């Protein structure tokens, strides 16, 4: 039984010297992160496809049971809108090949303008994807969450293809006005859609955005602790990514989420022990 947890990145200036060693080379940052969490969002691939050598270094820093949810590049999803981007997609998938089984899913995040009228385009794109990988889709158009016909239309495309629908739960963020600069930034940039908790596959993926105040973040994830517990009891293998507006404590909070679920599901595999923030010495 496995619950994967992680964050939106594996390096953050405010983690250094608090959770992770203060002085880490780029080639060691992911390794240190992976001692805290066993999954990570691959958001940087949206902006540029990394070199194969870079991806090989990611594989070298993680065990085979570590999980990446890797975002497809912006030219594929936002510029070409899933049409005529075969070369960009092929180059991306080739670059990711060294990760092997570490790729939990390739994440197709679609723009907010991608509406129910575009579902046929998505269906054609999914049919053309190479076999042997798992895929997950995140939509942000409100109709998919508020119009039952639109919701069912999308599910009828995703579910038979074994493609997960990734919810980004921002409801706690928008439950009250922002109280910090980071929250004000999130208030203007994050999607404002209802919470969705239905899984389509055996490996559901959840993105949860809390608040800068820890108690509000923890209170807001209570429904997810309950839902993830149900999924585990059903034999599913969920992955949950914990975000906060400034992400300063997201690394610790992801582990706390795992601990809260494990308190109710004691047979759940534990996370690894974190690497100390500084090497231990005799003097």
UniProtKB/TrEMBL annotation:
Traced from the root, the source organism's taxonomic lineage reads: Bacteria, Bacillati, Actinomycetota, Actinomycetes, Streptosporangiales
Name assigned to this protein: DUF72 domain-containing protein
Region called Disordered, residue ranges: 264-283
Pfam families attached to this UniProt entry: DUF72 (PF01904)
